[in-house]
Amino acid sequence: MAGMTVQALDDTTLDGRVAVAALVGEVGNWEGVEVAVEPRFGGPLFQLGRRQLGHLHDAGERGAFADIPLPRALRDELIAAGRARLHSAMPDSGWLTVPVRTAADLAGAVEVFRLAYERARRSRRAPGASRT
Questions:
Q1: Which of 18, 54, 81, 92 is most deeply buried (CB count within 10 A of its CB)?
Q2: Does residue 90 sit within a domain?
Q3: For residues 38 and 50, what is the distance between their CA atoms, to the nearest angstrom?
Q4: Of 21, 44, 19, which Cα lies nearest the Cα of 34?
Q5: This model's pTM is above 0.70
Q6: 75 within a domain of the structure (yes/no)
């Protein structure tokens, strides 16, 4: 593989099927995460208990889109940093969209899902519950 660089790999274009499969394989294997079918669009939905961590849209040759709910302040930080964009259907909510077109985008989407996951895990812990 002469000439292959990390940058070249990061810029490798992913189709939607590959991007969705990679995200399901990663996020779907985190402790306590269940993968279900999003009822309106039919794509994969991730949840921890009753809390939705987000869901995916396969956009074919255009890659995939991860829609993730977060508090507005955090959503705004991620958008300002260029890591996400406003959710097109609900721009005034805490939802954001992470386009996934390249391997680098895939890593970025995993990071944003991790933020949602860690918030959900913290909120599941009851006050005074054992943390062993």
A1: 54
A2: yes
A3: 13
A4: 44
A5: yes
A6: yes
